[in-house]
Amino acid sequence: MARTAVIVGGGIGGLAAAVGLRRIGWDVTVLERAPAFTEVGAGLSLWPNGLRALELLGLREQVMAQGVVEARGGVRSRTGRWLSRSSSAQIERRFGSPLVVVHRVDLIRILLAALPAGVLRAGVAVTEPPEADLVVGADGLNSTIRAGRWPGIIPRYAGHTAWRMITNPVPPLADGAVTWGPGERFGFTAMAAGRVYCFATGTVGAGRTSADGEYAELRRRFGRWPDPIPALLAATSPESVLRHDVYELPPLPSFVTGRTVLLGDAAHAMTPSLGQGACQALEDAVTLAACLDRDGDVPSALAAYDRVRRPRTQAVVRRASRLGTIGQLAWPPAVFARDVAARLTPAAVTLRSMAPILGWRM
SUPFAM superfamilies in the record, alphabetically (predicted)? Predict the structure, then answer.
C-alpha cells in the first residue's frame, strides 16, 4: 500500500514536491486555501540550480520552452553606467545551464499538468494537523503549519518594499539590468512575446501604501531613471503592478518535527536579491523526494533532508539579506564606495562567488 503525504500549499514548492513524491510512488494530496490553483505574480529567474531541479522532475524542457534565456545582464549605477556585466553563455559554460526567465503562471501551469486532478484540492484552509504518513508545510511566509509546530518564529521585515510588473510588448532589449540608486533599485529582463519583467525596490516602512496607487509611486520614484526604465513604465498597465513588503525568516532550529517537514518560504523565506526563492523551493522538493526514496524510514529520511537543506538554504538567506542591504544603501559615501567596488570586481570573480549556489547537484 502506498504511503500517504498531505502537502499544505499549492505554490511552486508544494506542487514540485507533489510531482517528486508521486514519481517515487507516494499517494499525494495537495491542499490549497485559495479557491483555485492559480498564481498571481510576475516573472521569476530560474538559475542553473533551479533548472537542474526541474530536470530531476522531468519538467526542464517544458519550462525552457516557455521561458526566455537572458542573453546578457548586469548592474548599472543610477546614472546608467555599467558596474558589472555577465552573459548567459558564461553562466552556461560554468554551470551547465543558462539563466531563464519565465512567468510564474506558466511554471505553475506546467507543474499542475504533471499532476492528476484528483491530487489537487483547492479552497481548503488547514486548521488542524492533517493525518498522513507525511505532512509537508509548503504554505509560504505566513505558514499555518509552521505556526502550529514551530511557535514563536516571526517573519521580520527586511526594511524595503518590492514592486513587480510585466510590461505590454515592447521593442527587444539588448540587455537585462539591475540599476542601483540611493535606497532604490530597478531591474528588468526580457520575457516571451516581447514583454519585459520589471522589479523595483524602495526603502519604505512596512505597510505603507501610496494614496494615488502603486503605479503612480513607481513613476515618481523611477520615471526619470536611465533608459529604458521610463519607456518600460510607460508600457506597463497600472493595474498590473504588484506591491509586497519584503520579509525574511529568522533561522529555524530544524525544518522537521515528527512527520512534518517544511519547504520553500515556509522554511526559509528570503529577500529576492539573489533571485533564488523559487530555485531553493525546487531544490527542497527534489531533495525531499530523494531522501524518502533512499530511506524507507520516514523520520530518518526527514532527518537527512534537514541535514542537507537547512544549512544550505539558511546560507542563501544570509547572502540574499547582505546583498539586499548593499543594494538599498542610501548614504552617498556608502553608495559611491559600493559602486566603485562593483565596478572594480571582475565578472569572473563574481561568477565564481556564485558557484556554491548555482553549482548545486543532488
Answer: FAD/NAD(P)-binding domain (SSF51905)
